[in-house]
Specification:
Number of strands: 23
Shape: elongated
Order of helices and strands: EEEEEEEEEEEEEEEHEEEEEEEEHHHH
Strand content: 25-35%
Helix content: 10-25%
Largest sheet: 5 strands, mixed
Distance between the termini: 86 Å
Amino acid sequence: SIAFDPHNDSIIWVGSDDGLVHLTTDAGAHWSEVRPSNMPTWATVTCIEPSATAPGTAFVSASRFDWDDFHPYVYKTTDYGKTWSTLTNGLPEDQYIESVRQDPNHPSLLLAGSSSTAYFSTNGGAQWQPLSLNLPAVRVSDVEIQPEQHAVVLATFGRGFWVLDDLQLLEQLGSTEADASGAQLFKPQQAWLTTRGGRGGFGGGAGGENLAAGATIFFRLPSDYSASTPVKLSFADAAGKLINTVTLPERPVAGAGRGGRGGAGGAGRAARLRAGMNRYQWNMRYPDAVEVKGLYHSGFSASEPVGPEVVPGTYTVTLSYGGAEQKQPLVIQLDPNLHTTQAELQQRFELLMRIHDAINRLDTALNQAIDARDALAKSGSNSAAEQKLTSDIDDLVDLRIQSSEGALVYPGRLRAWLSAISGQVSMALIPPTPAMIEVANGYIQQAGAGVAKLKADMPQ
């Protein structure tokens, strides 16, 4: 094992496969043996990690599994190897250590790869805890911390890479005191605005799993939490304007996914809340529009009126619990592989919001007209007003479509066209073309006329 000191390239640490540790401070001209005195003989030095924040500090891991000794060996020095302390509290006696790494942003956070899984310590190695989660029982050969992405990457002997995307939560666990009597909102990790293509299709093979869409919000509820106490999460933009408020746990939307995409506008619905740690996945969207009663969602006709995505920027998350509020900033950035400007994204967002508002107004008016029409039908009057309402409703939406390919039988209506242009504009994180804007403006104008016509019919 060879490691350069991040503060001085002339300082080099070397560990051998027979239990020796040497240090040079003059780029190799002279070497000094700095082996921990209590390290067993013939141990293999598996990793040396000089501290990124404290000169003279380094961590060393070693193993003796070749000698049927499976004990963990982890050491720390703060004086260039003159003295060492042992850091194995909490590590199992039957798991040897392959690597130990320090978080450069939070020096008290250490991660270690063992012969069976991964471990972390939030107090500089004084106490270790397992970080297995959904990681199979496998030897973790090395650990790489990516501070820019706030991610942890594990290289395993099973020839697989595993990525933990929530490093900032681990960092905060070590820097905050747990208060069992109150709720706690953690600062969300930076989220990415990116285009996500559908997976699957024909001939798809096994592959990695992408980072979950949206922004992950971690919060802790007190030990005496009961379902009778409301829990709310609110999201606001940089100007403080409210985007959305969700009451947890969210109830599934009636008919969500019926012929559609499974409630794409409601990603991250929590099945239940519990005392202790909870997680909510915000889809980074504005609230869905009102839906037309009885409308079937299909790629060939009207689709779900999902709220537009936010633009990159800084947002505020608020946790409301027990009459108290906690706020944390949330930074959302554009996928660095994309080069759309902020102004272009804002143009795209504003057009999507105009379409969304038009759908919301149209669907609201349609629902009112449908209720009135159904009431007239129930009365058995068979009046001209009922026929007029039915005709105007049918001009705007076709409720006869009740299958995925029903739109191949019945022609499209304005409600479906609004869905289509919204889908085209939102398909990619690029500015809308002049043709898209022109088509959208035409549909928005027609939607306004349709709402006015329905409202004129209603008094009759």
